[in-house]
Amino acid sequence: MRTPLCDRLGIDLPIIGFTPSEHVAAALSRAGGLGVLGCVRFNDAAELDRVLTWMDENTGGKPYGVDIVMPAKIPAEGTQVDLSKHIPDGHRAFVDRVLKELSVPPLPDDTDERAGVLGWLHSVARSHVEVALNHPIKLIANALGSPPADVIAQCHDRGVPVAALAGKAEHAVRHVENGVDFVVAQGYEAGGHTGEIASMVLVPEIVDAVDVPVLAAGGIGSGRQMAAALALGASGVWMGSMWLATEEYLQTMGESVAMQQALVAATSADTVRTRIYTGKPARLLKTRWTEAWAAADAPEPLPMPLQNLLVSHAHNRIHAANDPSVVSMPVGQIVGRMNAVRPVAEVVADLVSGYEEALSRLDKTR
Amino acid sequence: MRTPLCDRLGIDLPIIGFTPSEHVAAALSRAGGLGVLGCVRFNDAAELDRVLTWMDENTGGKPYGVDIVMPAKIPAEGTQVDLSKHIPDGHRAFVDRVLKELSVPPLPDDTDERAGVLGWLHSVARSHVEVALNHPIKLIANALGSPPADVIAQCHDRGVPVAALAGKAEHAVRHVENGVDFVVAQGYEAGGHTGEIASMVLVPEIVDAVDVPVLAAGGIGSGRQMAAALALGASGVWMGSMWLATEEYLQTMGESVAMQQALVAATSADTVRTRIYTGKPARLLKTRWTEAWAAADAPEPLPMPLQNLLVSHAHNRIHAANDPSVVSMPVGQIVGRMNAVRPVAEVVADLVSGYEEALSRLDKTR
């Protein structure tokens, strides 16, 4: 299971794994893929620096990458306190009422509360790039559009290729015009921010539209799906959801037991594409929390970055509540195939053996 | 490009093509696939009988099938006149206003107007089955759920296997329990009635859930996509949209020039999943007609079969208007790959050569 992408990135398997967990990222890199650490959760660049130092010490010299979030349309800058002034009282009241109805308790008084995500402010994302380029990263990916030209130049000066996600062929073309080196074709079925065109249609469309390697994202969780992605013309796969149900994920996010229970129990029909997480359409696990926002009396979600600031305290309470029915978590339709919490290496081994089986099956059609 | 399905159906290529056009169906059967004629447009069973006699004379002895529409939930029975009483005046007024705004002229007085589709009433669909079983058909497919047990038995008594469409694994399991012989896994990206789970996730899920051959539907329009479908475990593909942009389609539906122009111009982003065509969610080409129904002042679509009765006269006017911007046509996201009107045999030849190329590319990953 080798493609030219493997040589380009110095990896054994064309499996690129996006994850907020350094334990998952390191395990995937050690298993032969490329672990890509999501930086958006690091409001403090110094914390990211410490985690990347840990990565340097725990990837056994194997390549890894990072993922930043710089929306193509620059969101309002500001501290959490400044920005919070723009959140309507009605929205706050709705969140409070829903949490009460869902029996999500308040946080204990002594909780050191995690702040809302600011990582998609350009100022914060730029600090992530600065820090990451001081580590031996092999890829920087951007989740929402092309990074600014000077950021791409900065990465190229350091010999680091840049990837960008695209949900339409025209976006992919623009990325490549802007200097992006790889395109991640993110299909409708993917978790997190996603468009409306499904992988089966989107991947070959983007492959035909650009002359750079394309990674298929959305719906990839087995070797059969990986074979399908490569049949469609992808040079590799970009996977995010599958790593949420791994043992390594718990090592980073120790308190995510209820979330993993919810993911393992869910079917492929148990996701919803909604703006309630960030203000932009993103696919989440369907739970009583997302259903409350789909009710007739729910307000329209706010634009990015206000919506996440609105719900960040609720997310902390939901997380602490540890109730599988009230999880708030981005995940793709592949969640239906996530039926156990496994080590990363086992997920990778299954991808490889399933891929070989699929190719053997195709051989018989000749 | 052979699978065990080919032997089972007596065909050379595992390409099953759904189409309302007997010219397309016959051309596909002659090209080595299985043409499946959609019966829902035949309110009069005698007309279907005449068309199937034409098929018998024009398929060169090659196998073909038919597709009926029997919703699992039985809709209200009645003639068009009876049923029309249930359509609210406000809905009629909305349709009239939109047609005026879109400059769709009234029909000439002497038009022999086509009635609304009644083919999904069980009484009418049963008449289709009766007629079809007197022809040498090799497959009966049902578009909305399993056919009733006695209809399945009737087909099996005549040695005709039955296929049913499914948008969820649980529906596929139920179909097989009911005696269905093949499942068509219809992904989100497909045209017409469709669910929310994309083909990349749905196809392997259904393959794992049932022990009968599965046909992949949704997003298939090239050999690469066909290879992807077979990599996912499908025994063949079920294609509908691609045949709309063929020369043979025009032979049946001579006045569809504007529709074909609109399809050829559309991108994969130019579809919408909506209830305005039949009352159930179906993917259509996005045009000024669908946009009018998406506007804030549009009424909720009516349940099946009322919604199609409501819009059937509008469909006739839209069709006669011959304006590519006001088409009402079910089509999948694959419409982005439909960039020319071609003969059916050319579409099939491209599928075969693209499939071989995809397999050669996969070989190099070993």
UniProtKB/TrEMBL annotation, chains A, B:
**Molecular function per GO:** dioxygenase activity
Task: Give the UniProt keywords, A-Z.
Answer: Dioxygenase, Flavoprotein, FMN, Oxidoreductase
User: Do you know which InterPro entries this protein is assigned to?
Assistant: Aldolase_TIM, NMO
Signal peptide range? none
Flavoprotein as a keyword of this entry, yes or no, is: yes
Query: Pfam families of this UniProt entry?
Result: NMO
Q: Which Gene3D superfamilies match?
A: Aldolase class I (3.20.20.70)
From which domain of life does this come? Answer: Bacteria
Under the heading PANTHER family, the entry gives:
2-NITROPROPANE DIOXYGENASE, MONOOXYGENASE RV1533-RELATED
Protein name per its UniProtKB record: NAD(P)H-dependent flavin oxidoreductase YrpB (Nitropropane dioxygenase family)
Q: Which organism is it from?
A: Amycolatopsis lexingtonensis
The organism's lineage is: Bacteria, Bacillati, Actinomycetota, Actinomycetes, Pseudonocardiales
